[in-house]
Write a structure and sequence with these properties.
This protein has 9 helices and 8 strands. By secondary structure, it is an alpha+beta fold. The protein folds into 3 domains: 110 residues, Butyryl-Coa Dehydrogenase, subunit A, domain 1, CATH 1.10.540.10; 112 residues, Butyryl-CoA Dehydrogenase, subunit A, domain 2; 156 residues, Butyryl-CoA Dehydrogenase, subunit A, domain 3, CATH 1.20.140. It starts with 14 loop residues before the first helix and ends in an 11-residue tail after the last helix.
């Protein structure tokens, strides 16, 4: 809950915190360590309360406002922004439902107000559609469910209080169900396994695996029981996709803007003996690439802003929301990756060294295209949706 000195919050008021986060980014990456200091300072500043309704002591921001903060934080420290996105999207989507009249998860908002931290446990090996299907089994037992499986990419591993996750109840093979729950940290029957060592990028998120061995989650933390597949996408499940995908997109957009600004600054003094002027900025090819990069960023920004604003306004696109969200995320991360990749071309050999800063952002930026949905799933969803095909239908070839 915000203190008397935190009655308001703004991008400007957080500038010093953001800059401190940036100053620690290289060290976190080099040590493969969790962003502990960043997390503490952001939490103390009230950052985790951005989407929490004012009635619960938060700042009451909707998606469009939260994404502006995430974009700015990512400009300075993308891994930090990516990790806290997990908490923000749970609080944000539950706040949306609460304002719409669904009070069933009010407990989550009260726990967030008390300083509890929420993380996500949806990623699974062999499951490209996390959230609507699951390789984790959910067994109905007296008083709740038991879960057995393995969750990957568990950002915020060292600090989460609840792990929002799902499993599949196959007791009726003809009608499998997806069970969405929040597992308290003090539950028995799970193990956090350190797997996030020397990964390609986003190292500070400390996204270790969580192994579930019949862990029991009581009914009070069971928040949804829906049909498996896209047919089970109610407001809660759609909200997960909306907040997660828009969060991913804005994080990678913020990082790409940072890289672009770094290259512009570099070109002020970068020289070449092969050019009569001596400056790389006078090279037609470099000017062309800079223009291409600028156009990509200029196209991504209004798309992200529009989708977040219309979600916040409650615009009713019905099933077409899937198209809006997937297209915006996919376009953003792919265009932003192109900006980062081309930046390394312009930077030249110096860009491959850690001290340049580009090498780290190059590794971090590449992960954007791997977040669900990846480029294959995104195009499958978009193609089937726009053609009016059943997203849950088994493919038929020939």
């Amino acid at each position: 809950m915000i203190s008397e000195t935190q009655k308001s919050i703004s991008l400007e008021s957080l500038q010093e915190v953001f800059e401190k986060c940036m100053s620690r980014s290289a060290q976190y990456d080099r040590d493969n360590s969790f962003f502990e200091e960043d997390f503490r300072e952001l939490k103390e500043a009230g950052y985790l309360l951005l989407p929490l309704p004012e009635e619960f002591g938060g700042f009451g921001m909707k998606m469009d406002q939260v994404m502006q903060f995430q974009r700015r934080l990512a400009y300075y420290a993308a891994p930090t922004a990516l990790a806290v996105n997990m908490h923000l999207y749970w609080v944000g989507l539950v706040a949306d439902l609460w304002r719409a009249g669904d009070k069933s998860m009010e407990w989550l908002l009260r726990e967030a107000a008390a300083g509890k931290v929420f993380a996500a446990g949806h990623a699974e090996s062999g499951n490209d559609v996390p959230g609507v299907y699951s390789t984790t089994t959910a067994e109905k037992v007296e008083g709740g469910y038991r879960f057995t499986g393995r969750k990957s990419f568990g950002s915020l591993t060292p600090v989460w209080s609840y792990l929002g996750m799902h499993g599949q109840d196959n007791s009726d093979p003809e009608n499998p169900r997806i069970i969405h729950v929040f597992m308290p940290r003090d539950s028995e029957g799970y193990e956090i396994r350190s797997t996030w060592d020397d990964v390609l990028g986003m190292r500070a998120t400390r996204s270790d695996d969580t192994i579930l061995d019949g862990v029991f989650v009581p009914e009070q933390y069971v928040v949804r029981e829906v049909p498996a597949g896209f047919s089970g996408m109610d407001g809660f499940v759609l909200g997960i996709f909306a907040w997660a995908l828009m969060g991913f997109a804005n994080v990678y957009f913020g990082q790409a803007k940072r890289v672009f600004d770094m290259i512009l600054d570099t070109l002020k003094s970068k020289k070449s003996m092969s050019l009569q002027s001596g400056l790389m900025s006078h090279h037609p090819g470099v000017q062309h690439d800079i223009a291409e990069m600028l156009m990509k960023l200029e196209a991504v920004e209004p798309q992200l802003d529009t989708v977040a604003r219309e979600w916040s306004e409650g615009k009713d696109y019905g099933p077409a929301w899937a198209i809006k969200l997937v297209a915006a995320k996919c376009n953003a991360v792919e265009q932003c990756w192109e900006v980062i990749d081309r930046s390394l071309d312009i930077a030249g050999g110096f860009g491959i060294f850690p001290k340049s800063g580009l090498e780290r952002m190059f590794r971090d930026g590449r992960l954007g295209r791997m977040h669900p949905g990846n480029r294959y799933l995104s195009r499958e969803i978009l193609g089937k949706a726009i053609l009016g095909l059943d997203l849950d239908a088994k493919p038929r070839w020939g």
